Amino acid sequence: MILLDRVSKVYPKSRRPALDKVSLNVAPGEFVIVMGRSGAGKSTILKLLNREERPTSGKIVVGGIDYDDLRPKDIPHLRRRIGVVFQDYKLLPNRTVFENVAFAMEISGMTKQEINYNVPKILEIVGLADKASEFPRHLSGGEMQRVAIARAMVRQPKILIADEPTANLDEETSLEIVKLLIKINHYGTTVLMITHDTNIVKKLRHRVVKIAVGRIVSDTKGLVRNAK
Amino acid sequence: MRNNRSNARQLRSRQTAARRFLMWRRSVKYGVSNFVRNIWLSLAAIVVMTITLLTVFVAGAATVMLNDTVQATKVEKMDLALYLKPDTPEDIKTELKQALETDDNVAWVDIKSKEESIKRLEESQVVDAETEALITESGIELSDILPIEVSIHVNDIYNTDGLREAIDGQKSQFKVYEDPNSYEKQFWHGDNQKTVQNIANLANGAQIAGFALSGIFLFITILVIFNTIRLAIFARKDEIEMEKLIGAEKSYTRAPFLVEADLYGAISGIIAAGAGYTLILSFLPEVRVGAAVGGFSTELLNAIMIGYAPLVIIGIVVVGMIIGDISARLAVKKYLKY
User: Fold this and answer.
1) Is A86 on the interface with B (CB under 8 A)?
2) Secondary structure in 3-state letters for A146-213
3) Residue B30 pLDDT more than 80?
4) Residue A157's closest chain B neighbor by CA?
5) Model pTM?
6) Most confident by average pLDDT, A41-45, B60-64, B76-80
7) pLDDT of B97 above 90
8) Are residues B60 and B88 in the same domain?
């Protein structure tokens, strides 16, 4: 489902690569945690997968799409196939919870009927059915993260990438968010969770890929190799 | 099989069209919402654009009036005189008139009657009392010796070479009827030419001033709308970033800004048309009096303003929308990186 083959990324004006020949293979339906400290290169993986950045070298294939073949006009289409939960939520402050989630469907050209059918359903799944008409400023951190997850999931993508979904949340709320991601994974969605929260990782029995200074240092599934 | 494929294709194309229409409606909705959200900036942009459109409108109206005046004066007051022998038969005169009127530059040809020629001669006071007495004594009728004047009214005073060639070309056919003494006297009436020249200069000057003023306001408007859209883009920076990251098409993100600028243009166009019409129509009687005194023609202006009012209003609105659209596209191209 997700394949990174000897992927390197060197940012301009940077002395060392953010990613150094990283190879990672995530199977369909898998729940994978990419763990590492700040600056380890975790967010670069997200940026590469969402095509915010291009790799300096290496190959990326997601859901059968080879990124080398992507034309600029194909990028929006690719992004609509991947659900992304951002660390800072990226919610629209002047829109309600319903409108924030609906927005993801609107930009995909879905009709009002489709929106009115799907949005309440996904809000029910993330436990925010009663907050549909609230504005983000009236929500807690955990609730905002749930809205972000709902927005990422409402188009029913095959892949969900969550970037630090538990950052800025207390332990209890973090656990609830992770449980929600696991629930989504049980529906068949491949989940890639990027985190630096070791406490959360310890509580989970999922594949953990550790990354440090741009290189994969361990992979609990043992399928990861670091090219030399 | 082939039918199924064709049906599927038709269905897909209908779905694509429906989706495009839906996205367009949403863009318009967000454009209107941006407009309301930045209401003070929007109002400022509308005021500046209204002044520009009003300037263009008034300058256009003045240009129409002055050009109409030049044209009317040229045709009414400028003529080329050609003289025929007094005994030229009627059919030859008619033939000559028809031949001359085939020239595109000829508005009409007027062949003066003998009575008109005598009256004109008397009015011109070229013949003094002594000469007149001599003519009367000799028993010669003035009408028998006066050449027949062919007055040729032209559209373009600066373009008479073709006409001269046409007259010369006709020479052989009409040669025998030419008045040998007066043919060479074909002339432009000196004073009229000066009058027309003065009005033409005024029209050209007004046109240049109108263009210059419109150009300055146009430049200011483009800058103001460009800046308004730039600020709107900055104000929605996070939203645009989010739209981009979750897969919005570039055109979808861009469209509301263009709609917003088109709205400025449309609203400004309506206000400018209303203000322009109010201004011109309320002063039209005064304009007419002034025009009559100054020798200006308001006929064409009146005909366009009244007869083509819907077209004029639509034209101003469209010009406003084009200005808004161009300014917004420049801002979007520069600041909405994708």
Assistant:
1) yes
2) HHHHHHHHCCCCCEEEEECCCCCCCHHHHHHHHHHHHHHHHCCCEEEEEECCHHHHHHCCCEEEEEEC
3) yes
4) B246
5) 0.68
6) A41-45
7) no
8) no
